[in-house]
Design brief:
Helix content is 63%, strand content 4%. It is mainly alpha-helical and 762 residues long. The chain has a 6-stranded mixed β-sheet. Helix 9 (300-323) runs antiparallel to helix 10 (332-349) and helix 19 packs across helix 21. The two termini are 27 Å apart.
Length: 762
């Protein structure tokens, strides 16, 4: 028996109530898990100051945990009892009250509070995105809404706000939260994911969109409040498991997927969305096979209709732009209306149901893309003109709907990723970038029969353009990229020099203090001099090499009076050259004094040393090798710029370039892999040095060991690979897009088709 609208609405409200009740039952377990995590963290080896902070955190948490727990429960129960958890009053949860002076807010910085709260919400969504997507679809169907209210009780940021506000009300500091952030994120994310899963299961039992790919849990926490029933009297699905001994199969893969790194999860998410689309289409059209790379060519009538539509759209949009004196001024409604009319004509020309379905799906994808507010209006018109070329490819290459790496999808996603941050910054898209997107679209339009090949070709060209654009053409990034390249060159050469100097002096009897100076200081001086003076063969660089040779000779054992006199004669100009080199490399004066003092001690020791004398022939050999040092250096591509080799990058800082040297947490291999896969042009939210701002990835160095982001104001922020991964892991660097443009558009199309699948056939 079909449910009435009233029954459906009541069921959605019951699901919300069940979710909040489950949260109430489960919060004590979450608090206990956080306490255990804090103790485990305190037990790890760390510097004395860090270890002491962690121990203090454990003590603070033990005292305040009951108040934190009660605060969260009180806020949730108040909302539940007052009927606030409903579709009409979603997530209308009270703020924490000041219970006493001891429980007063310890930090009035609302912005900082919101930042921590949003990071927790992002961690929840990162872990629970698939389950939440399914839940959102089911609640949307029950309530006949396109999407949940921004403050729906189901949304993770509602619980995140409660958790952080109650934390502060319990007398716990935000610094303590930051120390435990990894633990807090993990425990809350797992708890919310389990909650969404159980509510999905409960709704499926009531025949609410059972066709959605519900992902069963395995190895669920045995202490979780979510294990078992959600509402009293409700039983789990037949065959479902509630213990850690779940059945092998899809569940295993799902669990592994949720535990994988963000890169893998993102790919899996995209594939899951495409899989749901194909499943839905297959139910309506069994003959639709999206996995085939080459399908049936479009019927002659449809091919002609697509060509006519392409020309007509281009002509209409150009005319509309000319009338407005700006192509970018064409309104979104005007574009959508034009594309809708063309869709109807195309469907009339289609020869098969599969062709009509393909036309409908592509139209829905572009409807979503063109209503994406983050795409600047000036660029939106060029995305509109891509619809017909994409339709042509989709008809002849059905795997467009099945594979995330189809070049047409990748091209749309890359162009979208580059422009979707401009509206947020208040800046217009740069002329050159807009012109390149226009050129790309026109090339695709000009080669209608090449399909995948033309999309792959222009995608490759677009990637090359981006590299050139940020390096040479973009005013905001040009200087930052130049500085970053200098940093990379200097650091690479310094490491190269260090490696070769170690080889040269491996069996040479030289004072240890001199060795350390050459490896740790002078290698960097040589590199800096070579970078700034125009190369390894410049006179300045040669002078620094001669100074190294003189120092090696001076610091070797001296047995004759003549040699000692020669050392004394050479010493003042040598020390002067050493100081000049260190100053040129940016070594502070106090550090220079320290190095010179150590060298004096080493040179004095050489006068009385009983070590073997360096033969004259060996000294001549060393001099020759220093002269031609660059010929011996390892290839730059083989040099790894990591934190163990580079002690301090902060010396490269300037008003135009910040070098990130602290922050984040020890990255996992998955996070390192993700850091290596970030793409030039993409936008991110960066939380660093008290700023939370949008930045764009502008440059990546050799083997992606250094990565440069640029702020809208043109300030460069430089990361080493490990530090970049650490920021990603800690949520200090977050992609501005949770999912790619085409995946989001596919989800939007799915939502519409879920409501009315018959539109595929009409």
């Amino acid at each position: 028996m079909a449910m009435t609208p009233a029954t459906q609405s009541a069921l959605a409200q019951q699901a919300r109530r069940a979710y909040v009740e489950g949260t109430l039952r489960g919060l004590p377990g979450v608090v206990e898990a956080v306490e255990r995590g804090a103790k485990a963290l305190a037990g790890q080896t760390a510097e004395p100051s860090v270890a002491m902070k962690r121990r203090d955190v454990v003590l603070d948490l033990q005292k305040a945990a009951p108040f934190w727990q009660q605060g969260m429960i009180t806020m949730l129960r108040s909302a539940l009892n007052s009927g606030m958890v409903s579709a009409s009053r979603p997530g209308d949860l009270p703020s924490p009250s000041n219970r006493s002076a001891a429980l007063s807010l310890v930090d009035d910085d609302t912005i900082e509070h919101e930042i921590l709260s949003s990071r927790l919400a992002l961690a929840m969504m990162d872990r629970a995105s698939w389950e939440f997507s399914d839940l959102r679809s089911r609640i949307g169907q029950l309530e006949k809404r396109e999407d949940m209210d921004p403050n729906d009780a189901f949304r993770p940021h509602v619980l995140a706000r409660i958790a952080t506000a109650s934390w502060r009300a319990a007398g716990l500091s935000l610094d303590t939260w930051r120390l435990l952030q990894t633990v807090l994120h993990e425990e809350f994310a797992q708890f919310v994911e389990e909650g969404y899963h159980e509510i999905n299961t409960w709704l499926v039992q009531r025949r609410v969109m059972p066709e959605v790919d519900l992902r069963p849990y395995i190895r669920r926490s045995t202490n979780s409040a979510w294990v078992g029933s959600v509402v009293s009297g409700v039983h789990t699905m037949p065959g479902a498991t509630t213990s850690g001994q779940g059945r092998m199969g899809v569940g295993d893969e799902t669990r592994l997927m949720t535990r994988a790194g963000p890169l893998a999860r993102g790919i899996d998410h995209a594939e899951a969305v495409l899989g749901r689309l194909n499943k839905l289409i297959g139910r309506q059209l069994p003959e639709f096979v999206a996995t085939q790379q080459v399908g049936t060519p479009a019927s002659p009538a449809l091919r002609a209709a697509i060509s006519e539509a392409q020309q007509g759209i281009a002509r209409r949009l150009v005319q509309a732009g000319a009338a407005a004196a700006d192509v970018g001024a064409v309104s979104t409604p005007a574009m959508l209306e034009e594309l809708h009319q063309r869709k109807q004509a195309l469907k009339q020309a289609a020869a098969t149901p599969v062709e009509r379905a393909t036309i409908e799906i592509v139209a829905l994808l572009f409807q979503s893309i063109l209503t994406e507010e983050r795409i600047p209006a000036a660029v939106r018109v060029w995305f509109a003109r891509l619809q017909m070329p994409v339709l042509r490819v989709a008809v002849s290459e059905p795997d467009f709907f099945a594979t995330v790496d189809h070049p047409a999808r990748k091209l749309i996603d890359r162009m979208g990723a580059c422009v979707m941050g401009f509206d947020a910054t208040g800046r217009a898209v740069a002329d050159l970038l807009e012109k390149e997107i226009k050129r790309v679209v026109q090339v695709v339009e000009a080669y209608p029969d090449t399909g995948r090949r033309v999309f792959q070709t222009v995608l490759t060209e677009f990637e090359k353009f981006l590299e050139h654009y940020f390096k040479d053409a973009n005013e905001a990034s040009r200087k930052g990229v130049s500085l970053a390249q200098q940093v990379e060159q200097r650091e690479t050469m310094a490491i190269q020099y260090t490696i070769e100097l170690r080889k040269m002096l491996n069996e040479v009897p030289v004072q240890e203090g001199v060795r350390e100076f050459l490896f740790q200081v002078w290698a960097d001086v040589l590199a800096m001099t070579a970078v700034k003076s125009g190369g390894a063969q410049s006179e300045q660089t040669k002078a620094m090499k001669r100074a190294a040779a003189d120092l090696i000779w001076s610091a070797s054992a001296k047995v004759s009076r003549e040699e000692r006199a020669e050392v004394i004669r050479r010493l003042p100009p040598l020390l002067k050259t050493l100081r000049e080199g260190m100053e040129h490399a940016g070594v502070p004066v106090e550090k220079q004094d320290e190095h010179i003092q150590k060298l004096n001690n080493s040179l004095a020791a050489a006068f009385t040393a009983k070590a073997a004398v360096i033969p004259h022939e060996r000294l001549e050999e060393l001099m020759g090798r220093l002269e031609t040092l660059e010929e011996l250096l390892p290839e730059a591509a083989d040099v790894e710029i990591d934190e163990s080799m580079v002690l301090d990058l902060s010396g490269h800082e300037s008003s135009e370039l910040e070098v990130v040297g602290e922050g984040g947490s020890m990255p996992t291999p998955a996070m390192l892999a993700w850091a290596r896969e970030l793409q030039v042009g993409s936008w991110y939210m960066l939380d660093y040095r008290g700023r939370n701002e949008q930045v764009q990835l502008a440059w990546q160095g050799l083997r992606k060991q250094l990565t440069l982001f640029v702020s809208p104001q043109g300030r460069g922020i430089l990361f080493q690979q490990h530090r970049l991964a650490a920021f990603l892991q800690a949520g200090l660097l977050v992609p501005a897009q949770e999912e790619s443009l085409t995946v989001k558009a596919t989800r939007s199309a799915l939502a519409k088709l879920d409501v009315d699948p018959s539109r595929l056939l009409n």
